[in-house]
TrEMBL record:
The name this protein goes by in its record: Uncharacterized protein
A Pfam family this chain is assigned to: LPG_synthase_TM
Subcellular location: Cell membrane
Protein origin, superkingdom: Bacteria
Bilayer topology: Multi-pass membrane protein
Protein species of origin: Hallerella succinigenes
GO cellular component: plasma membrane
Membrane as UniProt keyword: yes
């Protein structure tokens, strides 16, 4: 069954890319890339690296119990997560691998999984905060269809509900499930611990907001790199919508869907030529490769150590 789902996702991603590039020839896209783009890659890479460092810092702060673990270990597993995110068919595959692998290595799997789960949710909440702060400014420039407002409000509500459920998960008695899967009870306790550490949650929220601002700044740089600046409000609002839509599990990590949504927003609402939109958006794969390469190095080192052991 899992293989069938993966094949269907692959079909959606490939079909989406074929549809997009049939409408916008790659030759039209690539003509927007020239040597003037290269200097912009430096601040993009710096912001990408800064984002990874903040993620590692947030994870370390949220590791409340257990032994003191070096910061470099958190960073290494963050990189490993990016590596597996692009090998596994789903945007959460890397999170599962890094949290479980990290937990097994340091003997705190439930806390590792809990901290990553809470971090993911806080990251989405930060995304919604930025979205709702920027939408009034964009609405002054362009009328935004109500479907986007409603969708983001509903998703924000679900995210808040998920946060509450996680923090109060110990109040739910799942004895039947816990007997079959003892890890569930451990995870409930690990999630509930954060209720007693509001200061840590506050700093985790701030780190999540910083990460979202870095994402927005990076997306702004994409357009600046190809000589077509876009307002921060538009980038903030559209980035939030694109991320949420890309999370729908119908494609391989949002590939094919993301590009189509980018065109529908930037071209359909702002009138920016589709080749410009795709030229800017595809620059993100360079930064993705930067993250994946770091994860590949970590994976190779760990594999070498495991063989040696």
């Amino acid at each position: 069954m899992q293989k069938i789902k993966t094949i269907l996702k692959l079909v959606v991603s490939v079909g989406g890319l074929i549809f997009v590039f049939s409408r916008v020839p790659f030759s039209d896209i690539s003509k927007n890339w020239n040597l003037s783009v290269l200097p912009w890659l430096i601040p993009m890479l710096i912001l990408t690296e800064l984002g990874m460092l903040i993620q590692a810092n947030r994870w370390k702060k949220m590791s409340i119990e257990g032994p003191e673990i070096p910061y470099r270990s958190y960073y290494a597993y963050i990189a490993l997560g990016y590596f597996f995110n692009n090998l596994l068919p789903g945007g959460f595959g890397g999170d599962v691998v890094k949290s479980v692998a990290f937990g097994k290595r340091y003997g705190q799997t439930s806390q590792s999984v809990a901290s990553i789960l809470i971090s993911r949710i806080l990251g989405l909440l930060a995304l919604f905060v930025c979205f709702f702060c920027a939408i009034p400014f964009l609405s002054l420039q362009k009328a935004i269809p109500s479907v986007y407002h409603v969708t983001m409000i509903c998703m924000c509500g679900l995210c808040i509900a998920a946060t509450v459920l996680c923090l109060f998960s110990d109040k739910f008695h799942l004895d039947i499930i816990s007997k079959r899967v003892p890890f569930v009870a451990k995870l409930q306790n690990s999630l509930a611990i954060y209720r007693k550490h509001k200061g840590i949650l506050f700093f985790a929220v701030m780190d999540s907001i910083w990460l979202q601002l870095i994402t927005i700044a990076t997306n702004c740089l994409y357009f600046m790199a190809i000589g077509h600046p876009v307002s921060w409000a538009a980038v903030t609002v559209f980035s939030g919508i694109i991320i949420i839509v890309s999370m729908i599990p119908i494609s391989i990590n949002g590939i094919g869907i993301r590009e189509g949504v980018q065109i529908s927003l930037y071209t359909g609402l702002l009138g920016i030529p589709a080749d410009i939109v795709l030229s800017a958006g595809l620059l993100g794969y360079i930064l993705l490769l930067f993250q994946v390469c770091q994860g590949a190095v970590v994976f190779a080192i760990q594999k070498k150590h495991s063989k040696a052991g």
